Structures are given as structure tokens and as C-alpha cells.
Amino acid sequence: MTDAIPSLAFLGAGSMGGAILQGVVASGIPVDGGIIATNRSQEKTQALAGLDGVHAIALNDNPHGNAEAVASARVVLIGVKPAMVPDLLAEIAPHLRSDAIVVSLAAGVTLQTFARVLGEEANVIRSMPNTPATVGKAVTGLAAAAHVSAEDRAIVRRLFELVGAVIEVPEEQIDALSTISGSGPAYVFLLIEDFTRAAIDKGFSEADARLMAEQTFIGATALLAASGEDPAELRRRVTSPKGTTERAIAVLQDAHLDRVFTEATDAALARARELAAGA
């Protein structure tokens, strides 16, 4: 594989697809054959049109835009809403290159759904990125169909590594992964909300409370990344025996946070399975 990434088509370059697209452009890595992105509206299309090397198509103006986009693309990313995926696949199936790699960004849409429309031999990979892709800090799970070659998996892995870390898993684990890294940013934001509220209740202004809470999370995760230490070890270093932090940690542990997070992610997994079943 060369330093360049092969030609890309983003069908539905919304929030997540757009984040991946912008990560590719920001990386400065050349794309052999260029990038084509489609969106329904002219407004969303114009937001992408200024990106270097991107040809943006508004489907309202060009109803054949999806077919045109995939005809020359080696990697085709499906970024439309899950309910729209089968119809989109039927639309593009006759126009895909024989060596195309089709990458799903749609939660809950199985590899078998893609195979039913595109054929059992289609090269399909499910992806589950998360929203920090917009700042190059994503965690993306990849699950490839069994017959996808190592070279094709490497192409897609490299693409997503432009916006963060990548984990390859079997498809049966992709929904479980979504409950951790996919939904995980929301859990962190909720903790920051509640931490901020606790500071406000202690008399701090909203601005100061937000600064303390947000920067404490940002600083702690930066320290974790820079140190290479286990988080439990870093926690122990902050927790002096018989000190204030130890007292606070005891309250949190008495609340059984480990059980709460298990129950929360179990609930998310149950819902992911409902969605996959069409419920």
C-alpha cells in the first residue's frame, strides 16, 4: 500500500461522515482519484465544497449523484440514516467498482443486510466511530466481512486512524463496542455536567464551575495519556491516606459506580439489539 489513500466517496457526509472527511483533508495525505461527497441539500453541500480536493454533490440538484460518486471510488462510505441504507445500496449496486470496499457508518445495520443487496462477495466493513472524530480523537471499531482481504482491511484502518484510534473486532462485538466508545462521550459529558452542578452548589459562579470541572477532566485524561500509567495507579497517587480525596472516593465506591456503568452499558446494548431487529 502506498502513502496515498485510494479514491473515496462519502454518501451522506453529515456529522460523522463529515468528520471523517475533514480528518482526511486535514491530514494532508494525498487521495488518489480524489474525494466525492454527496448530501441531500445544497446548504450541506456548500459547507463541504470549500474543502481542498473535495467534489461535493447536492442530490436535490443532481439525483444521479450517488451513482456518479461510487463509479470511480475505491472506498465508499455509507453515512445515511440506518433506515435509508437498503434503498441507497440498491441504488448504487449497479455502479460500484468490482474492487470497491463499502464501509458502513450506520449503527445497527448488519453485514448481512449489505450482503443481501450487494451480494455475498461484496467487500463490506462495518465501522463504529464516535464524535471525538471531529477533533481527531475518535475510537473507531471495525468489523469486516470474513472474506475481506487483509489489504482492504488495512486501507480502511488507515483511513480511520486519521481521526483517532482503531479497534478491529468480530461483528458480534460491534454493538457492545458501541455502548462503550460509541456512547461513551455522552457518559463523560454527563459526569462533567453533574460535577459542574456540584461546584455551583458550593457557591462558585457557573463560569468558574465549568472551568474547574471541564479542565479537570481534560487535564486528567491528558495526564493519563502522557504518563502511560494505569488509571488506578494515578488515582492512588491523588488519594492520600485519610485525606479528603479518600473520603470522596469512598462515597463514590459506596454508590457502586461499577455496577451503575455495567447496568448502563447493558441497557444500551439491549437497545442496540432492538434497533438491529427493527424494533
Report on this structure.
This protein has twelve helices and eight strands. The protein has helices at about 15-25, 40-50, 65-70, 85-90, 110-120, 150-160, 175-180, 185-200, 205-225, 230-240, 245-255, 255-275, and strands at about 5-10, 30-40, 55-60, 75-80, 100-105, 125-130, 140-145, 165-170. The protein folds into two domains: about 5-170, Rossmann fold (3-Layer(aba) Sandwich); about 185-275, ProC C-terminal domain-like (ProC C-terminal domain-like fold). The protein is an alpha/beta fold and about 280 residues long. Strand 1 (about 5-10), helix 1 and strand 2 (about 30-40) form a beta-alpha-beta unit. The two termini are about 40 Å apart. It has an eight-stranded mixed sheet with strand order 3-2-1-4-5-6-7-8, with helices on both faces.
What are the key terms here?
cytoplasm, Rossmann fold, EC 1.5.1.2, alpha/beta, pyrroline-5-carboxylate reductase activity, single chain, Pyrroline-COOH_reductase, 2 domains, 279 residues, ProC C-terminal domain-like fold
Coarse shape: elongated
Structural class: alpha/beta
Specify the CATH class of the largest domain: Alpha Beta
Strand content: 15-25%
Give the strand order, joined by hyphens, for the main sheet: 3-2-1-4-5-6-7-8
Helix content: 40-55%
Could you list the spans in which at least 5 consecutive residues all have pLDDT below 50? none
Rg over CA atoms, rounded to whole Å, is 22 Å
